[in-house]
Amino acid sequence: MNLHEIIICYGMTETSPVSFTTFTDDALQDRCTTVGRIIPHMEAKVICPETGVTLPVNTSGELCTRGYAVMEGGYWKSKAQTDEAIDAEGWMHSGDTGTIDERGFCRINGRIKDMVVRGGEKIHPVEVENCLFQMDGIHTVSVIGVPDKRFGEQVCAWVSTKNGYQISLEDIQRFCQDKIAHYKVPRYLVIVDQGDFPKTTSGKIQKNVLRERSKTMLRLT
């Protein structure tokens, strides 16, 4: 595509807003599959969300950053929210899961609150979504967890298709079976028009709304 100067970066409004970035002289594979390395004068670590323990390289957990780019005053008139986001040592807890490899390159897996836990197995929706995007006929996909009496949660895929394509749950399960672990394969499928995905004002799909709608549509409790 001749897009030689495009780079990927990652951050939050609360971190001014970039914490990690790739550079034009990074390998193409790193620029396409990671958000780069921590910027100068900033620190990063990956922790276990449950215990707060720092995890080894290439281990998925919550991404935290610390340094001059992290907001100082906190959230406006919300000390409780500020204390939840920034700990006593000044680490900003992103709420995102990711890994950092031995070279310092970071990969983002998704939001902690969006993670699906099926029978004790943690599933990152983005992994399933990336798999489904390889399937012919799929235009938009969003993967969520829905209640299940036996496993706690099951994987549900909301999908809109390109014009003229018909896709069934069996088609999706067959496509996924040799690409991702069996417990990550969607158990439920909801087909909607492209314009029927609930979105925020910034264009992000509202997974919390999808979860509530799924409970009603699929008669799950």
TrEMBL record:
AMP-dependent synthetase/ligase domain: residues covered: 5-73
Domain AMP-binding enzyme C-terminal as annotated: residue spans: 127-204
Any one GO molecular-function label of the UniProt entry: medium-chain fatty acid-CoA ligase activity
The keyword Ligase is annotated on this UniProt entry: yes
Entries under Pfam families matching the protein: AMP-binding, AMP-binding_C
Family annotation (Gene3D superfamilies): 3.30.300.30, N-terminal domain of ligase-like (3.40.50.12780)
UniProt-listed GO biological process terms: fatty acid metabolic process
Protein keywords: Ligase
InterPro entries: AMP-bd_C (IPR025110), AMP-bd_C_sf (IPR045851), AMP-dep_synth/lig_dom (IPR000873), ANL_N_sf (IPR042099)
Classification via SUPFAM superfamilies: Acetyl-CoA synthetase-like
Signal peptide: none
Presence of keyword Ligase: yes
Similarity-based family: Belongs to the ATP-dependent AMP-binding enzyme family.
PANTHER family hit by this protein: ACYL-COA SYNTHETASE, AMP-DEPENDENT SYNTHETASE_LIGASE DOMAIN-CONTAINING PROTEIN
Protein name: Fatty-acid-CoA ligase
Species the sequence originates in: Modicella reniformis
